[in-house]
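1st attempt posting a full record on here, be nice pls
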Amino acid sequence: MIVGLTLSGLTAFPLRWESRVLTSLFGVDSAPNPEMISGMRWWLVTVRNGLQETYTRYPFIAYGTDWLAFAHLILAILFIGPLRDPVKNIWVIEFGLIACVLVVPMAIICGQIRGIPFYWRLIDCSFGVLGFMTLWLARKWTIEAKSNGQREAL
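the predicted structure (as tokens):
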């Protein structure tokens, strides 16, 4: 969780640059508008153009994604507690489980409202599913260790 949240946070800062890299990797860096292509490549060009236009005309909008990045980094720090003492900090693991469950309706509902393609919303949902599986195992192992009296061994 710490690594995932940190990477997710750090990648939320250079969105315009990342969108240019992705369109280049997908071979659509020279596509001026999304109507010329389809599927994932259409979405990448749409995002690239939207970020370029928005950041050029309204650069303060990027401040919102800076705060998004900051929140991811702060949440990563939160998970240091369970890394150091999982039994004492099991509430953080449970908080993470709840957050992971909430990723799915957030992505499905808000993604629909914002016009995000369904396949991209599934990608977003996958972060919640993978995070949930990781934290579920952490919680399971923490409960087992606690019941075995191995708090100090953790």
